[in-house]
Amino acid sequence: MACARGWQANLAAANNRSASGRRCVGSILSLFGANPIAGRTFGTEDAQPGNAHVAVLSQGLWTRRYGAVAA
Length: 71
Description:
Layout: E1 4-11, E2 17-24, H1 28-31, H2 59-66
């Protein structure tokens, strides 16, 4: 079982454009068998208080907003 809810985010690196997304528990991607093309999914350490916020981008957002270029 996992949970998620809608969420709006401002993408500072993309001229403060907003993007819709989902806030979810870290296990939600593995529940659906989703694996990243690049990078990583959420780890247990990401949910710990005081840790930086983490996001998993869709391929579409990665391509449209960031030109699909690795940092």
